[in-house]
């Protein structure tokens, strides 16, 4: 039976990419060895790393005054790395509170500075919504403003891009990077764990504007120091070579499909189809106001928790995996990252329709 993977991360990867990795697993690039078995200092891997970096730069349109780093420790390591790299002499930073992950980032930053929580949650037609950027109350003394454009657990998204004059903006793009074109020049730092829209877990992308390098705290571990990592082309220590290689294959796959404009169209079509079905049903509900609905993570509930449990169990039997909502919020969540296609979403909707009938 074919399975449809709606996991929030680690998540579905493009089947073509996995097949290519499979064919090259034992003999990569005519080296007679797997990419996992070769030195990161060798010319073969070096070329692979450079190509992946260049392809990411081209699809995301990263300006030349930004470094692209491939680091480890996931997005959570960046929760600490960001303040330790760029606070400079300042003592406070603004943390926009939009949900679970932005709160986690603020909690970690508390160790290093005063993390000012800026609550932007509000209600719109009785549903959860986020205030527009123009209404964010930022503090003068903050070294930077941090926000999370896509709250993976809550299914909440901020589609506006920042425009705060000379403020340094830091964004946790973990669950929406490469889902649509963005204007990188509006950010000081963009970071993202790979395991949703990029590749396997174990690698984290950091895109940092060059003028922010070199302000780091003396107690910052070298592996998290953007200046050191950038000087060493992200190879200060041994990088996760397989994850880097696989991410490179995903970048090529995105390019072949038409880049981020094509990804956005594909993602909007999937999300619109699913939300339209949920909105048209009396059985399922999504609690997020339309302007803030994530196009990557779609949480929904049935009439009660018992039925939710039954839904998850029966969905699994029908080949739908990873659909259970995060333990904090319960219900269900369909993560529909780049690699999920419209057929997968339609399969889910067919199952939802069928399931509702069986509950009558
Ligand atoms: N930020 C966001 C938006 C996330 O979705 C996640 C993981 N789900 C994290 C941070 C934490 O990522 P990691 O496990 O890579 O540290």
TrEMBL record:
GO cellular component, one term: cytoplasm
Protein name: Phosphoserine aminotransferase
Enzyme class, first EC level, given as a word: transferase
Cofactor comment text: Binds 1 pyridoxal phosphate per subunit.
Positions of the Aminotransferase class V domain: 3-348
Keywords per UniProt: Amino-acid biosynthesis, Aminotransferase, Cytoplasm, Pyridoxal phosphate, Pyridoxine biosynthesis, Serine biosynthesis, Transferase
Gene: serC
Cofactor: pyridoxal 5'-phosphate
